[in-house]
Amino acid sequence: MLRYPSLRAPLDILFLVCCIVLTADVLGPEIWGSGKTKDYPLWFWAGQQVLQGKNLYPSDPSIYFEFIYPPLPAVLLAIPSYFGKLPLYTCLSLLNAAAWWMTGQFSNAMTGSGRIPGPWLYALPGFATVSFVFDMFDLGQPNLVLLAMMLYGFWLLQHERPWMAGSMFALATAIKVFPVAVLPYLLWRRQWAAAASMVIFVGIFLFVVPAPVRGFQHNITELKTWYQGMVGTSSEKGFGQRDEQNWSWVNQSIIAVTHRLTRPVNYDQDDPSKPPHFMNLVDLDFKTANLIVIALSLLIGLGYIAVMPPRARRTPRSDAEELGILFCLMTVASPLARQYYFMWLVFPMTILIHRAAYDPRTAVRAGTWAVLAVAGLLMCLSFPIFPNDLQAYGNNLAATAVMAGGLVWHILHPPLDAKLPEAVANALSPTSGELKPDIRA
Predict the structure, then answer these.
(1) pLDDT reported for residue 418
(2) C-alpha span between 208 and 256 (Å, rounded)
(3) Is 142 exposed, middle or buried (0-12, 13-18, 19+ CB in 10 A)?
(4) Alpha-carbon torsion 35, 39, 43, 49, what sign?
(5) Is residue 2 over pLDDT 60?
(6) CB-based contact 384:408 (threshold 8 Å)
(7) Which of 49, 67, 152, 364 could form a disulfide with 54 if both were Cys (CB 3.0 to 4.6 A apart)?
């Protein structure tokens, strides 16, 4: 299924036109306006800091960080930054365009349905998530590129290239830490080579790759400062370097929503001009709220393990659904899950669309479309016409839970012909159900 865009396919032309328009949104203000805003100037600043040998972080971890990522992304940004802002912004836009195309390719290739969808069905997840893609281009955030890396990693894993797969997981983790959540899954599924590769390459990307550019000791010092300022901080005010966002409505992670529901936290704290607003159902202290988060996370993790089929009953279909749930969990398990993080739902959405189109059971197809409709309506509540209160209560988190629930149902209730391992199912005749003559015992 993996292919390049074709100028003979109308939907591929539409994709290319969209990429041109989205790239123009990035480059236009820089060429003809007052300059592109959002995160783009920050990426250029980080690249220039590396080129000039300056520090990425203040010496005091308690001081506000301009750049909140590990040093590796800044080193990578330094290469196009050397040529100026326009080459950097163009490079980032091209990366997003390539990641958008490959995300659609990998998502449809790994649904386990064994079917090649028609062009409109193939493009449906892209249409449904186009607002997230716009955010990726407009903000300059790397989440779409990270999603493509993770999907590529699992595609490599399915094609028995675990060391290369682990390196993809490691690169995504070294750029933005939350993909590290894939490591426990690899260990549980006994993907030892992929897990070892991921650990080794995380070390290479964090310690070895930046060293020739930043200096080994300088890089170690910056990693320590970054860890203390980003990972090692947590209090009632917040965590990391963006206290005003951590507990506010913009964050729909499990951690943030749980704290908003259990503590008197002002969910409009990102805008000091607004009066405080609260949504807590109970009044608990910070420590107790954290214990609830831990308990919920354990219950969700144990529930995920419980629905994962044992090795003997795994099929391509169940593997796809299992990975779809994993992508749901990685999205909401991140401490900070802003609106654009939910771009990662495109993969579980694609799996459900394939189930809704190709499941042999009529009632199941209708029910799966209903699940997708409910999830889609919940996600639409993020549009600016609706109050921010709905996001404070976690509309995208709820949509994620609905999709994950649909995937859980499909794992537990596969169609009859999908209950057998792939080798046995392929040995059965599609017409009579008898063994083909050329299949040996």
Answers:
(1) 63
(2) 34
(3) buried
(4) positive
(5) yes
(6) no
(7) 49
